[in-house]
Design brief:
The chain is α/β, with parallel strands linked by helices. It is built from ten helices and seven strands. The radius of gyration is 17 Å and the shape is globular.
């Protein structure tokens, strides 16, 4: 692990970073440490806190292990991908992390929270699964996905769509904005991480994905540290006025695909 830099701009701040062992989580943790922050890394292995966010027991374990270390200044729910359950980790695990650790933010002068979504959240999503997620009904949501091969293939995007909706609903509430805690989501495009290996390792898949969602700024794939710097700012003390936003860090893919339909 990279040690904190004494006297950096984030010296004295403590961050929880899930998914810290690789990809965007590792890049973000490195950026934070280089700026002087203490980072509590959480992952399936190779981390200060080892826990599996695809299971209720793993989520409780993560919260308990972090709570033993005391108050924190920011919670970054970055863990995702497909090593374990897609819907379970990417939606229910992320929400449990943010909700479970929110009380630990109460002692911070500048508490912050960020979830990592994806441009996959733009894909069509099954309304029954989204509704079950919104209601916190994990059993129904996962049963619906397990019973339908098409939904299994779409589970990652559905989870991220549900996460976007949760952030939008939750950020303006008394428990978050009312308590002075900005809560935002960052939605990356295709980034050069282990989770994207199935795209980047097959030339036909890579070409198809790049054509469907071109990353006109920065190229294809993006770099994890490009996303990490955005997460770091949103989770830092300088962010005093941004909350409830889903910010697409995707080289322009979302703008290309969605256009101005929200504003006309």
């Amino acid at each position: 692990m990279v040690n904190s830099v004494p006297g950096g701009p984030l010296a004295g701040r403590r961050y929880v970073v899930t998914g810290s062992a690789s990809g965007i989580g590792a890049a973000t943790a490195s950026i934070l440490r280089e700026q002087g922050a203490e980072v509590i890394g959480c992952d399936l292995d190779d981390a200060e806190v080892v826990a599996d966010l695809s299971t209720p027991d793993g989520r409780r374990s993560l919260v308990d292990q972090v709570a033993e270390r005391g108050c924190v200044d920011a919670v970054l729910a970055i863990a995702g991908g497909g090593r374990t359950g897609l819907l379970e980790t990417n939606y229910f695990g992320a929400v449990a992390t943010l909700e479970g650790l929110r009380p630990l933010l109460a002692g911070s002068d500048a508490p912050r929270a960020v979830a990592v979504s994806s441009t996959s959240s733009l894909a069509p999503a099954d309304e029954r699964v989204l509704r079950a997620c919104a209601e916190g009904d994990e059993a129904t949501a996962t049963a619906l996905v397990a019973a339908d091969p098409a939904l299994r293939d779409a589970a990652y995007g559905i989870a991220k769509r549900a996460l976007n909706a949760w952030v939008r609903r939750t950020a303006p509430t008394p428990e978050w904005a009312g308590a002075g805690i900005p809560l935002n989501a960052v939605a990356p495009g295709v980034v050069d991480t282990p989770a994207a290996a199935w795209i980047l390792g097959d030339e036909r898949v890579r070409a198809a994905v790049e054509a469907a969602a071109p990353q006109l700024l920065g190229g294809f794939p993006g770099r994890p540290e490009w996303v990490g710097h955005l997460i770091s700012w949103l989770a830092g003390p300088e962010n005093r006025f941004v909350t409830g936003q889903v910010i697409f860090a995707d080289g322009g893919s979302e703008a290309f695909l969605v256009g101005d339909r929200h504003w006309v």
